[in-house]
Amino acid sequence: MKQLTFLSVMLFVLLSFTLGYSAEMLNGAGATFPYPLYSSWAAQYQKATGIKINYQSIGSGGGIRQITERTVDFGASDMALKPEELEKSKLIQFPAVIGGVVAIINVPGISSESLVLDGTTMCEIFLGEIKQWNDPKIKALNPKLNLPANPITVVHRSDGSGTTAIFTHYLSGACKKWADQVGYGTAVSWKTGLGGKGNEGVANYVKRTPYSIGYVEFAYARQNKLAVAELKNPAGQVVAPDFDSFAEAAATAQLDSKNHFYSWMTNSPGKKAWPITGATYILLAREKNDVNKSVIKFFDWAFKNGDGTAKKLDYVPLPNSVKDKIRAYWKNYIK
Question: What are the residue ranges of helices labelled H in the chain?
Answer without folding.
Answer: 2-23, 35-49, 60-68, 83-89, 119-127, 136-141, 162-174, 176-181, 198-208, 218-223, 243-250, 289-305, 307-312, 320-333
